[in-house]
């Protein structure tokens, strides 16, 4: 078994580089070797293959089975070379260089051998090149030309592509004669089951690149080579499995690896091969993968992961790779719309009329109710530059600090907890750091579904021997899947994160496993003494909290010992940590664990929040919170305000504004009347749906800027069509603080990028802005925000990406934080007292509901539901344990009523032991389910982050959608009526 290797990143490891496949991975050796290839000397690291050394000289040795993101395989025999002093013709991909070696890549003997090998490949391959979807993009075709093959001498006989058995060269003709392959048992029909790519066995050359990519790059092990010799072929599982029913996760690694048309994107077959490409950044999760958007004219043909992307290193998932069709979906709104009240249908109008209508309404509200009666919600799907402008509009144009973002409902406790303990509100490591970790703690996160590209890198490290501790009430895939298994699964009861984390600290402290030297050197010793006194109390012992948490005491003790003594320890956490009434406390507890054990400030360790949306980190960095200006500086600081007041030529409010929950409360109370909501769907994503609806309905002007008429738009008066990531320039900041360029691939279908729409509205309200390109906005960010001081588009073009802080102290960015000291000075230990949530189970609501995501869908599903990804997840289902289902008379696939103190909904049941007895689980991707009608308004004590993960519920049989669902659907349908544009 071999593992994924990080491909070479060019000289110095920076910038946008040639995407040439070098054949084999780079060597990490620091020693060098000099050799001669075809008369030219080259010096390369020891351990480099002859093939790669040749490629460094620009000499491309023909190959079919080799690729530089996988270990050398040596099966195709096309890359043979001659080496002076050695017998035979070794494969250049599996032959390491040696000092003084003399290599010949193009002798008469070599040419004859290669041509013979290629002739054998072609003799069992359909020669339908002119009509093949891979024509012009086929390595087999290229290599036939490279070796000079012009004819095939062999008489057609047994083959894999001729179902007629007559030796016909036309695959179409052969299938017409014998479509089911009766006369040729070797023939297999094309597998079109996957919505995004096809598998045509007749074109397979059994190079094993797809199988190796699935194993080494993705780590799913869904593919294998079935049979031997002439009977060998790629298989996607059991005998009756196809690509849709197999374990394939449609990441596209196999498609990208395939050198022929055996595995090919359907989009290429339909549109044709691309003729240009633009490197940009994925607009889904917080991993921030780099892609080549490959175009034909102004039509997107495919998204190919960019091998020099430092977050993804040439890998992808099903969403980033294939789920881009929403950009051209028929549901997309491309014209501005307005209406006087939410009971009326929408009217399509010009941009000028829509902006004027919105500006007049918002100014009228302020004149009547005061300047603090309106506010904004920024988007974690939009660019840094766009988010910066929205919060600037609130502060400099509206004249208040009523700005908030979706991080309020996901990672705001990260900002508070890490800010209090370390002094900065972000993760400490880059993703490459996982390659050096020895013990990984995954708590409240499901990387294989939520952050699959990072999960692939994590699984690679686990296969190499690192140990894993999973802290989650649900048995996620990382607990046990092919070739990996967690050392410990702490299946805690929802809502008891603080108790578990504090109990782990208790074990580390009472057993003397903490790193005293690190603590004395790097942390506040007096605060540590106070923390030790607190955490050593017997009430925090694993045995004392076992009944509360449901985690066996011995299992917890062993997990704590492993983390403290197992070498480099890294903690990765997600929304299962933050979306609790004690989310901030848990983040503080995690930070305490890392400081206790000295697992901070070097590679392979750290505290790493896995951000949910593509730019949730950036939206926070840009000052989207009501109490902070860009760079996490409090609005009460006069020196900070002066920086912006001088540049913006306005006087800024020194009082924090309203958070999203406060805006909704104030709306119900009649004091908050206008909202500009860019790229967020709070009606579907925020808790207690009925309260959100009441707040929106009470407002006099709701402006929604988005791609589709989302659920929030049901209560909107102005709809401003948004632009996709393909239609704009800008930057995203991912979970590792990496600032990546977003590059415009095509013109905005609505006429404007989102930043231009915000500028239109701001200027209609007196803003006087004059930006002509997002680079100017980033320049303003750099001029006002210390952690972005050296960031510019020129630097990003040169380096490819950088991680903040990027300033004079770190001119090329900061991959690892807190190396020599914490941002705040000394690390701060803080007591983590467990306080039970007010949400309690009881006779009426005896079960606990927790929520999460699934691989194929993203967030509220507005994008992925409008792609073929819905083939994998067409509705939200409720996972319930067999015991709980049997007690309630629920069968698999039945409709059930899911009820809480807040509301009820109906959805189908999925009986599974992935959840524990007493716990049920669902996703929130489909508005027809509207899971958040169930969740309560309880929230984190420090940040108001909602407690999505702990809701007391009851489950009972149902006949179908609830009355609330039916009413909601009727209201939504009524709200989405659109009148034709006025003549």
Summarize the structure.
This is Formate dehydrogenase subunit alpha. It is built from 30 helices and 37 strands.
Strand coverage percent: 15-25%
Q: Helical content, roughly?
A: 25-40%
Tally of strands: 37
Shape: globular
Q: Biggest sheet: strands, sense, closure? A: 8 strands, mixed
Radius of gyration, in Å, reads: 29 Å
Strand order of the largest sheet: 15-14-25-26-27-12-13-37
In CATH's first tier, which class of the largest domain applies?
Answer: Alpha Beta
Give the CA-CA distance, first to last residue. Answer: 67 Å
How many structural domains in the coordinates?
5
What class would the helix/strand composition place it in?
alpha/beta
CATH architecture of the largest domain: 3-Layer(aba) Sandwich
Low-pLDDT stretches: 1-16, 167-171
- CATH topology of the largest domain, by name, is Rossmann fold
Number of helices: 30
**Arithmetic mean pLDDT:** 91
Describe this structure in words.
The chain is an alpha/beta fold and 983 residues long. The protein is built from 30 helices and 37 strands. It has an eight-stranded mixed sheet with strand order 15-14-25-26-27-12-13-37. A six-stranded mixed β-barrel has the order 31-35-32-34-33-36. A five-stranded parallel sheet has the order 20-17-16-21-22. Helix 10 (384-398) packs parallel to helix 26 (754-764) and helix 23 packs across helix 25 (689-697). Mean pLDDT is 91; it is low at 1-16 and 167-171. One of its GO terms (biological process) is formate metabolic process. It comes from Limimaricola litoreus. GO terms for molecular function: 2 iron, 2 sulfur cluster binding; 4 iron, 4 sulfur cluster binding; formate dehydrogenase (NAD+) activity; metal ion binding; molybdopterin cofactor binding; NADH dehydrogenase activity.
């Amino acid at each position: 078994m071999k593992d994924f290797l990080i491909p070479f990143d060019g000289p110095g490891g920076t910038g946008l580089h040639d995407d040439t496949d070098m054949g084999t991975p780079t060597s990490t050796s620091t020693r060098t070797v000099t050799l001669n290839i075809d008369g030219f000397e080259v010096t390369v690291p020891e351990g480099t293959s002859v093939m790669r050394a040749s490629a460094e000289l620009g000499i491309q040795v023909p190959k079919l089975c080799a690729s530089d993101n996988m270990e050398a395989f040596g099966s195709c025999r096309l890359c043979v070379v001659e080496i002076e002093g050695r017998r035979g013709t070794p494969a250049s991909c599996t032959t390491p260089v040696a000092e003084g070696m003399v290599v010949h890549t193009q002798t008469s003997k070599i040419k004859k051998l290669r041509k013979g090998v290629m002739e054998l490949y072609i003799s069992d391959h359909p020669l339908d090149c002119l009509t093949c979807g891979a024509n012009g993009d086929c390595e087999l075709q290229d290599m036939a030309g490279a070796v000079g093959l012009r004819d095939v001498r062999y008489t057609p006989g047994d083959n894999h592509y001729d179902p007629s058995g007559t030796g016909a060269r036309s695959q179409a003709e052969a299938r017409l004669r014998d479509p089911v392959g009766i006369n040729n048992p070797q023939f297999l029909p094309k597998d079109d089951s996957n919505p995004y790519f096809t598998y045509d066995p007749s074109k397979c050359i059994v190079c094993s690149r797809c199988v190796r990519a699935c194993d080494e790059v993705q780590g799913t092990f869904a593919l294998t080579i079935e049979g031997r010799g002439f009977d060998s072929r790629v298989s996607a599982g059991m005998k009756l499995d196809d690509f849709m029913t197999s374990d394939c996760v449609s990441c596209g690694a196999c498609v990208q690896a395939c050198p022929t048309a055996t595995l090919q994107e359907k989009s290429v077959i339909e549109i044709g091969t691309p003729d240009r490409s633009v490197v940009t950044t994925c607009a889904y999760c917080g991993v921030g993968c780099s892609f080549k958007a490959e175009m034909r004219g102004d039509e997107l043909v495919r998204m190919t992961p960019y091998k020099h992307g430092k977050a993804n290193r040439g890998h992808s998932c099903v969403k980033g790779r294939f789920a881009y069709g929403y950009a051209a979906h028929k549901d997309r709104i491309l014209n501005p719309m307005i209406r006087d009240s939410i009971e009326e249908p929408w009217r399509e109008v010009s941009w000028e009329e829509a902006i004027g209508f919105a500006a007049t309404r918002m100014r009228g509200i302020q004149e009547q109710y005061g300047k603090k009666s309106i506010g904004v919600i920024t988007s974690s799907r939009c660019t840094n530059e766009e988010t910066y402008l929205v919060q600037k509009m609130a502060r400099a144009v509206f004249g208040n600090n009523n700005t908030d973002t979706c991080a309020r409902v996901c990672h705001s406790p990260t900002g508070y907890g890490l800010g209090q303990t370390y002094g900065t509100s972000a993760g400490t490591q880059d993703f490459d750091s996982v390659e050096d970790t020895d013990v990984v703690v995954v708590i409240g996160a499901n990387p294989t579904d939520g952050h699959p590209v990072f999960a692939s890198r994590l699984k690679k490290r686990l296969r190499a021997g690192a140990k894993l501790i999973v802290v989650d009430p649900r048995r996620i895939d990382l607990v046990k899947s092919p070739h990996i298994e967690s050392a410990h699964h702490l299946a805690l009861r929802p809502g008891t994160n603080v108790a578990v984390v504090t109990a782990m600290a208790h074990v580390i402290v009472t057993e003397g496993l903490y790193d005293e030297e690190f603590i004395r050197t790097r942390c506040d010793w007096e605060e540590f003494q106070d923390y030790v006194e607190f955490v050593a109390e017997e009430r925090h012992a694993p045995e004392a909290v076992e009944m509360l948490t449901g985690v066996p005491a011995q299992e917890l003790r062993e997990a704590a010992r492993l983390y403290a003594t197992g070498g480099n320890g890294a903690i990765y956490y997600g929304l299962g940590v933050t979306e609790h009434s004690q989310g901030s406390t848990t983040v503080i507890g995690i930070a305490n664990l890392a400081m206790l054990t000295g697992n901070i400030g070097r590679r392979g360790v750290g505290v790493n929040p896995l951000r949910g949306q593509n730019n949730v980190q950036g939206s926070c960095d840009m000052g989207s919170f009501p109490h902070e200006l860009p760079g996490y500086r409090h609005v009460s600081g006069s020196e900070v305000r002066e920086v912006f007041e001088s540049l913006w030529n306005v006087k800024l409010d020194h009082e924090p504004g309203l958070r999203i929950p406060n805006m909704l409360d104030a709306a119900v109370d009649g004091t908050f009347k206008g909202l500009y909501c860019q790229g967020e769907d709070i009606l579907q994503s925020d808790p207690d749906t009925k309260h959100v609806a009441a707040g929106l309905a009470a407002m006099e002007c709701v402006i929604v800027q988005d791609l589709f008429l989302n659920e929030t738009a049901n209560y909107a008066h102005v709809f401003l069509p948004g632009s996709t990531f393909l239609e704009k320039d800008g930057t995203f900041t991912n979970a590792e603080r990496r600032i990546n360029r977003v590059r415009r691939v095509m013109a905005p279908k609505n006429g404007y990028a989102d930043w231009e729409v915000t500028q239109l509205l701001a200027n209609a309200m007196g803003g006087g802005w004059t930006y002509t390109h997002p680079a100017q906005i980033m320049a303003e960010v750099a001029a006002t925000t210390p952690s972005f001081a050296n960031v510019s588009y020129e630097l990003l073009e040169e380096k490819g990406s950088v991680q903040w802080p990027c300033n004079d102290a770190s001119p090329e960015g900061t991959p690892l934080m807190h190396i020599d000291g914490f941002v705040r000075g000394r690390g701060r230990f803080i007591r983590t007292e467990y306080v039970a949530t007010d949400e309690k189970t009881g006779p009426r609501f005896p079960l606990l509901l927790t929520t999460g995501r699934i691989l194929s869908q993203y967030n509220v599903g507005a994008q992925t539901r409008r792609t073929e990804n819905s083939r994998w997840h067409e509705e939200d289902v409720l996972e319930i344990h067999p015991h709980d289902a049997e007690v309630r008379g629920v069968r698999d696939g039945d409709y059930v009523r899911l009820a809480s103190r807040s509301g009820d909904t109906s959805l189908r049941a999925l009986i599974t032991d992935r959840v524990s007895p007493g716990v049920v689980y669902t996703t929130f991707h489909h508005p027809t389910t509207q899971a958040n009608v169930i969740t309560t308004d309880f929230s984190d004590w420090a940040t108001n982050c909602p407690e999505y993960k702990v809701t007391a519920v009851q489950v009972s049989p149902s006949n179908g959608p609830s009355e609330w669902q039916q009413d909601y659907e009727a209201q939504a349908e009524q709200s989405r009526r659109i009148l034709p544009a006025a003549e």
